[in-house]
Automatic annotation (TrEMBL):
Every PTS EIIC type-2 domain range: 344-691
GO molecular function, one term: kinase activity
Limits of the PTS EIIB type-2 domain: 218-313
One of the protein's GO biological processes: phosphoenolpyruvate-dependent sugar phosphotransferase system
Keywords: Cell membrane, Kinase, Membrane, Phosphoprotein, Phosphotransferase system, Sugar transport, Transferase, Transmembrane, Transmembrane helix, Transport
Biased composition range(s): Basic and acidic residues: 694-718
Native species: Streptomyces griseofuscus
Membrane-related topology note: Multi-pass membrane protein
Name of the featured protein: Fructose-specific permease
Length: 718
């Protein structure tokens, strides 16, 4: 295994002025050693991670990092900036910059070493030694753990003249000493990057104040989106603060290198829980009924002492979480304190996201059945009774019937995973039961939505009831499924099922009666929705509306027209951006031009997300242009009477489309309109930074090239 950092990956005079330029300068060193295969693609991945959450830390540290398919092996690059670079930390710019690159399939051994480095960054002696390192070899050896900060300081003191005492690093102490406490005990107690970051025995003596029979016990969980840096830095910071406070604190790091669950006995004995995370905590229900502080991962790094004090105060007041406390995978996706409307959207999107694969598989199989056997294939007998291997009609019937079975899961899956989003796994049983009842009473998708929301609410209400400890073991297996299914079934069959079924029939009849100008206006509206947020909630509402219409054994002509319009409009944004980067490349950055090549395939495959990199970089020009083209395509598709039975597939299902030639004209018209608008709007702005014809820039080998300075070129978030 090659070393993850060498002297060639260290820049002690990093001259970059922005975080993007710093990332580029360090990434170029990785590319020069063959550890990054596509510089632009890797920088786009770094920018995407940076967009999720700033990577600046108090104490003058910046840790841009990502997992990328363009990385050949886990690699570290280190830069030291005299002027400082803004990475979004509250206390100001960073002078120590670590670019951490991990391949998408990095093995645990590599990731363990990366996580150990993250822990070392909480060691003030370690960062001080890096600030005073006189040469790149010493800095690389410090980061690898080949030498300790004390050894590096001693070697430097021997080599330096007496007048060089100022270089000892004492004046370079991290400005975040008050937030990242110095290591307790012997200097070599901190782990080196070659050690696994296993949870430490953090038992310490009780300090001032009343002392119970045992120290105050805390269990904690840390996690971040990539699971490489912040996860382990927060763990180290909490453990250091725990030692200072005299508490017994054990951390479960849910990182990329996997995680070892805290022992049930540790959790049972804990007096409080600290959750410092930016992604869902796995198996969060283990901590139910304990005093809990729930914060973002950066709070665990920057103010661990405050969190420990807060959890002790909660324990003293007797504040505990109920077994039904929020924390399902969907609900914890956002920021704390979000409103009910935001939570409702996430619950619904939970159901839709699990339903879409059934829609795609079932719809395409049904469409293949129609393509092979004609529109009478739905009258074919069961393949259990009649199947001839050499007959096309038998294979057509098989495809159609498999697709029909897959489609039968749509409403139960929708309802089940809406309930899951609200109440976690206990919501699955009543959700699926309620969804199946919705199908039985012909309440359709509206019934599935209602069943999912009701199931989640019923399970949540049951979980809030305090029960004896002896009965808790059978609650998730027997009591909750039994009571919640009975309640949801009663409500769906007896109370709300019939009104919802009536509403569903009314909507179906309205769609069937659409014609003329009304149909064209609906197509334009759906086109606008498909292109507004490119795969986001509004896009999913339009797509779900369309798939709901064809998710029956015999969809109406109007429903198939709506499906055709929705898919056509969804293809427009990526295809338009691809065309624009081809005809006016100087208006786009190098990264955007590379993304444009991929957008041809994504757009042709009906993957609207292919336009997201362009919209993220220039939303005020790209999104309106895409919406205009999508609205035109949707309106034309409806006007031409194009129909589609398949819910996905893009140009690859053109043979299954009614009026395919006019359908493709509608798509082409929208693409041309969007391209013309985005080119016109970007022309008013002028050439993009890093595009041909702009200012001078450096290529990957450091030579003068065509456009904008390398220090100023900014990668686009994908």
């Amino acid at each position: 295994m090659s070393e993850m950092i060498t002297a060639d990956l260290v820049d002690l005079d990093l001259s970059a002025e922005t975080k993007e330029a710093a990332a580029r300068a360090l990434a170029e060193r990785m590319a020069a050693l063959g550890r990054v295969t596509d510089l632009a693609g890797f920088l786009a991945d770094v920018a995407t991670r940076e967009a999720q959450m700033p990577t600046g830390l108090d104490g003058g540290i910046g840790i841009p990092h990502c997992r990328s398919a363009h990385v050949t092996e886990p690699t570290l690059a280190f830069g030291r900036s005299a002027a400082g670079i803004d990475f979004g930390a509250a206390d100001g710019p960073a002078d120590l910059v670590f670019l951490i690159a991990a391949p998408t399939g990095a093995d645990d051994a590599h990731l363990t070493i990366l996580s150990a480095l993250a822990r070392q960054l909480m060691n003030a002696e370690f960062t001080a030694a890096l600030r005073s390192a006189a040469d790149t070899a010493t800095a690389a050896a410090l980061i690898r753990g080949d030498v300790t900060p004390q050894q590096a300081a001693a070697a430097q003191a021997e080599a330096a003249p007496p007048s060089g005492e100022a270089a000892s690093g004492s004046a370079q102490t991290s400005p975040a000493d008050d937030e990242a406490p110095a290591e307790a005990g012997a200097p070599d107690a901190a782990p080196t990057p070659s050690e696994a970051p296993a949870p430490k025995d953090t038992t310490g003596p009780a300090t001032a104040g009343p002392t119970p029979e045992h120290p105050f016990r805390i269990v904690a969980v840390t996690s971040c989106p990539t699971g490489i840096a912040h996860t382990y830095m927060a763990a180290e910071s909490l453990e250091n603060a725990g030692r200072e406070a005299g508490v017994e604190l054990v951390v479960e790091t849910q990182g990329s290198a996997g995680f070892t669950r805290l022992a049930p006995a540790l959790i049972a004995a804990a007096d409080g829980v600290i959750l410092a995370h930016d992604v869902p905590v796995r198996d969060k229900d283990r901590f139910a009924g304990k005093p809990t502080v729930d914060v973002g991962v950066k709070a665990g790094i920057n103010r661990p002492g405050e969190l420990i004090a807060e959890i002790r105060q909660k324990a003293a007041r007797g504040e505990t979480t109920a077994p039904a406390a929020p924390g399902t995978p969907v609900e914890r996706t956002g920021e704390p304190g979000e409103g009910y409307g935001t939570k409702l959207r996430k619950w619904l999107m939970s159901g839709v996201s699990y339903m879409v694969p059934f829609v795609a598989a079932g719809g395409l199989l049904i469409a293949i059945g129609f393509a092979l056997g004609g529109y009478k294939v739905n009258k074919a007998p069961s393949v259990m009774d009649h199947f001839v291997w050499t007959q096309t009609d038998s294979w057509a019937a098989l495809m159609f019937q498999i697709g029909g079975v897959a489609f039968a899961f749509l409403v139960p899956v929708l309802a089940g995973y809406i309930a899951y989003g609200i109440a976690d796994r206990p919501g699955l049983v009543p959700g699926f039961v309620g969804g199946s009842i919705a199908l039985t009473i012909n309440a359709g998708f509206l019934g599935g939505l209602a069943a999912g929301l009701i199931s989640g609410a019923v399970v949540t209400a049951i979980q809030r009831v305090r029960i004896p400890q002896a009965l808790r073991g059978i609650m998730p297996v027997v009591v909750i499924p039994l009571i919640s299914s009975a309640v949801v079934g009663f409500l769906m069959f007896v109370v709300i099922g019939k009104p919802i079924a009536t509403a569903q029939k009314g909507m179906t009849d309205w769609l069937s009666g659409l014609s003329g100008a009304n149909a064209v206006l609906l197509g334009a509206l759906l086109g606008l929705m498909m292109c507004f947020d490119l795969g986001g909630p509004v896009n999913k509402v339009a797509y779900t509306f369309a798939t709901a219409g064809i998710a029956v054994s015999d969809p109406s002509d109007s429903a198939m027209k709506i499906m055709a319009a929705v898919m056509a409009a969804g293809m427009v944004p990526p295809l338009a951006m691809a065309l624009a980067t081809t005809v006016r490349g100087r208006l786009f950055t190098e990264t955007e031009r590379e993304n444009g090549k991929a957008a041809w395939v994504l757009g042709a495959s009906f993957i609207s997300e292919g336009a997201i990199p362009f919209a993220a970089a220039d939303p005020l020009r790209v999104i309106p242009s895409a919406m205009a083209g999508g609205a035109l395509t949707g309106a034309l598709s409806m006007a031409f009477g194009a129909t589609l039975r398949a819910p996905h597939g893009g140009v690859f299902v053109v043979p299954l489309i009614g009026n395919p030639f006019l359908y493709l004209i509608a798509v082409a018209a929208g693409v041309c309109a969007s391209t013309a608008l985005v080119v016109a709007l970007k022309t008013l702005r002028g050439s993009a930074p890093g595009a041909p014809g702009g200012k001078r820039e450096k290529d990957e080998h450091g030579q003068a090239a065509r456009a904008g300075s390398a220090d100023r070129e900014q990668p686009v978030a994908a």
